[in-house]
Every structure is written in C-alpha cells, then in structure tokens.
Amino acid sequence: MIPHSAAIRPCSALISGNAGRLAIAALQARGEKPVALVRSPEKATGPGVEVRPFDCASANPAVLKGVDTLVLISSSDFNDRAGQHRNAIAAAKEAGVGRIVYTSILKGDANPMLLAADHIATEAALTVSGIPATILRNGWYAENYTAALGAADPAGQTDLPAPLAGERARMGLSRSRPAKS
Q: In the chain, what are the domains?
C-alpha cells in the first residue's frame, strides 16, 4: 500500500473536478490515504482527504513532502500547460516523490493535434527528471463533445469530430424525450 498518494490538477481545484474526484475515490477504495493538491483549498470538499494548497505557477516542493506517488492530471490551461507541468515535476523531484502518474494524450508523440505538443514536452520533462513515471495515454474525453449535443438530430444521432482519425464519426446519443401521448 502506498502511504501517501497525491493527485494534482494544475491550476484547478482537484476535488471539485471530475477526474480528481474519481482518482481520490479510487485511491480511497483501495485503502489509500490520498492527499489532494488544490489551487483553492477553501473550495475543496470531500471526506477523509488531506487537502494541501498547490499552484503549478509556484509549485512549492514542501507541499509534496511525504508523497510517494503523484498523479499529475493534465492541466486545461492552454497558455502554459507544459510550463505548469514542468514546475510540478521539478517540485516533485525536489520533494523526493517516488513516481509520477501522468495523464497524457492518445498516441503520444505521434499525435497530430496541436495540443499534443504540451503532452510531448511533459513526457520529455518526466524522462529528464529521472523520476519513474507511468504515462496514461488517454483518449478524447466525452465531455469535450458536450457543445455538439444540441446539434443531435431527432433520431438521437449527431456528427462528432474524430480528432485522431481526421474524419467525422457518427455517434448515437441517449437523451430524455417526453413520452408520446
């Protein structure tokens, strides 16, 4: 059992974020005692979780004291995502974190999407850091498609972009409809 695991989502409150809540719940289900690193501790909620203030802009290594495994959930900040990730990795190295688990992007360095560059840079920073790392090559998150839901046709179908295939994919959607009278 890992004595302390920390989950971090750069520049957003982890516990209020869906990925953070799920990561914490999974760790707790395994009997772990997770530490939530959040930008705004006053917004953090959740039972049985130690909350520590952490912002990737400053990335204070002292906050990571006692953390064996850091779950680095990719930032949604497009201005300096790679820089924030490098700050978190440097703080983890200085604090003696033993492993980083990073949510990267599907197909890693072969991904043609513009935002892949930030993930490629983060994976390179992990390699250079020397900290053992687990790279999770996540697919596109379903919530990225919510803006397209309003365009679903009456049959409950909508065209959604398939960013890695370079074509459009047809997806069946389930949505509530009033009962016919």
A: 5-136 (3.40.50.720), 149-181 (no CATH)
